Amino acid sequence: MSSPSKLYEESGRIKVNVTPGRRLEKVSKEALAEPEKFWAEQARNLVWFKEWDRVLDWKPPFARWFVGGQLNASVNCLDRHVKTDTKNKTAIIWEGESGETRTLSYFQLYRQVNKFANVLKSLGVGKGDRVTIYMPMVPELPIAMLACARIGAIHSVVFSGFSSQALVDRANDAQSKIIITADGGVRKGRLIELKKVVDESLPSIQSIDHVIVLKRAGNEVGMGPRDLWWHDLMEGAKTYCPPEPVESTHPLYILYTSGTTGKPKGVMHGTGGYLTHLYATAKWVFDFNKQDIFFCTADIGWVTGHSYIVYAPLMHGATEIMYEGAPDHPRPDRYWAIVEKHGATILYMTPTALRMYMKYGDVVPNSFDLSSLRLLGTVGEPINPEVWMWYFKTIGKEICPIVDTWWQTETGGIMLSMCTGIETIPMKPGSATFPVPGVDAAVVDENGKPVPPGTKGYIVVRRPWPGMLLTLWGDDEKYKQVYWSKFAGMYYPGDYAMIDQDGYLWLLGRADDVLKVAGHRLGTMELESAFVSHKAIAEAAVTSKPNNTKGESIIAFLVPKEGFTHSDDMRTEIVAHIRNTVGPIATPDEVYFVNKLPKTRSGKIMRRLLKSIACGDKIGDITTLEDGAAIDEVKQAYEDLK
Ligand code: ATP
Ligand code: MG
């Protein structure tokens, strides 16, 4: 692995604060000294119908923020702007896969949301009812979400790439009254027949009264007795819907986690605390200004889309880009083309998409004008230092800071990241830097004791934060067991991490995936980054299986870069590379070359599947798997070498 300190020097072209970390340190110290006062100040940036009586009611492990306060999420995203000169500002620039564009001003969005809220009301949807949304990445998706929020209904968005079983499980778990869908969506030039999937699912979901269908792709669909067209309903809808004032702790939505480590969990978020966390983190991390064009590439089916496409940028009155389509279709240049076309100033994307683009070399991004960019961000997985450097140099031209944001569906918003809105500090490629103000994160050992710098352990959060999940939908026991049982009184995210001598945090992979080799504990990230630092390797996934002498043996699955073909010589060279960079302890026992790795639909490597294959175990829940062919390929590679 390239040494972090060397890379740290290389990032030095960016103007950083002369006394790096001082301002952040001051804000963070004040925040942790009086957290309730601190968060109450942040909450005052929202619009409230009634201010809270108590900032925090903490009955571990259940936190209720801004108790007694009343507000409405759609008012905070829309009504607050239509009374100002933001009214006619572009809220959403939507771009389709083949380059078609639609724009919506804040006022247009406001109108649509009001009308659709009236539609939902007319169908008997009220406060606390659940609405499942299974839609492509079109503006009607945030419209539907905000309309639910306006009447106090709880939305449950199901990623539109999921099949019938995933939809059935989620709609049943939430006991939804309504499903909102579209005739079809488009991905990689192919039609995805969403309505057909809903039709297949309906016999297994008893709670549904109506299905609302948006005409999007224009494909033929069958309309049954419960099915209603979006455009028919909207035609007669009244233009204004009074917002429902909801309690701060009223559930805003349910969202199921990505399912990287197992069966997805139904995370439930509240309103006042969640929005406060988002408003504050967006200001600190992205430092939105009036001219910004924010491009978050996530799908709204994931939490990043909920928090940083829908709620945070709209609360701030920002202009944002919403893209429907794959990053590499029709060509592996879509994000760069969109940055150039719309003049995006902030790009927030994933390491997995970066590794995909990197595979094609610099020529592609270099053929676009990316000079509008001022800030880059990543989320979703640890970013390999090699990939960070490419992002920094090739995309950001060494002048855009990178915010590596660590957080989870459960945390609601960003927990660890550089905060450019407070100060830009020296960066270390692969480190998420520090907790955002008010977040009390630490790295602890098996017994819950903080570890000294340089020692690996588990990341924990020692006190509640406003974006924290309320619970798991309908399952308080599971909530307690998953997040609060490993360490007394501390939230356990399930990630492995380290704090270095300068206090910077490094995420090393999932705690479940840690390898124990000859008495050493290795995070998957440490090894995978070493593989990816070899010139021929685009992607790596590491797992292990039991070994009598050294505890566990290391197994690596590697995807070569374009133009490199694997051979026994290459395998030998790569093993030598690992021995030289990480050390002999990290020598992989088995190395397999594959064309793709098994990933979740959100692009995260599913190492547990690799482990099951390597250990000959049964493969568990794969409803969130992106492409079944990746498993077959891994199995084949495994068989071939046996
Ligand atoms: P499941 O909990 O169902 O297994 P998931 O954990 O992938 O799914 P998410 O909530 O979407 O579901 O992802 C959160 C996880 O993603 C974090 O716990 C962490 O492992 C990883 N992650 C997110 N951002 C970063 C980051 N910047 N650096 C390192 N890891 C990250
Ligand atoms: Mg998780």
TrEMBL record:
Start and end residues of each AMP-binding enzyme C-terminal domain: 526-604
EC class of the enzyme, as a word: ligase
UniProt xrefs under InterPro entries: Ac_CoA_lig, ACAS_N, AMP-bd_C, AMP-bd_C_sf, AMP-binding_CS, AMP-dep_synth/lig_dom, ANL_N_sf
Domain named Acetyl-coenzyme A synthetase N-terminal: residues: 26-77
Catalytic activity, EC: 6.2.1.1
MF-aspect GO terms: 3-hydroxypropionyl-CoA synthetase activity; acetate-CoA ligase activity; AMP binding; ATP binding
PROSITE patterns (alphabetical): AMP_BINDING
KW S-adenosyl-L-methionine (keyword) present: no
Matches recorded under CDD domains: ACS (cd05966)
Domain AMP-dependent synthetase/ligase: 84-465
Keyword annotations: ATP-binding, Ligase, Nucleotide-binding
Keyword Ion transport (UniProt): no
TM segment ranges: none
SUPFAM superfamilies: Acetyl-CoA synthetase-like
UniProt-listed GO biological process terms: acetyl-CoA biosynthetic process from acetate; carbon fixation by 3-hydroxypropionate cycle
A family per Pfam: AMP-binding
Family affiliation: Belongs to the ATP-dependent AMP-binding enzyme family.
UniProt protein name: Acetate--CoA ligase
Gene: acsA1
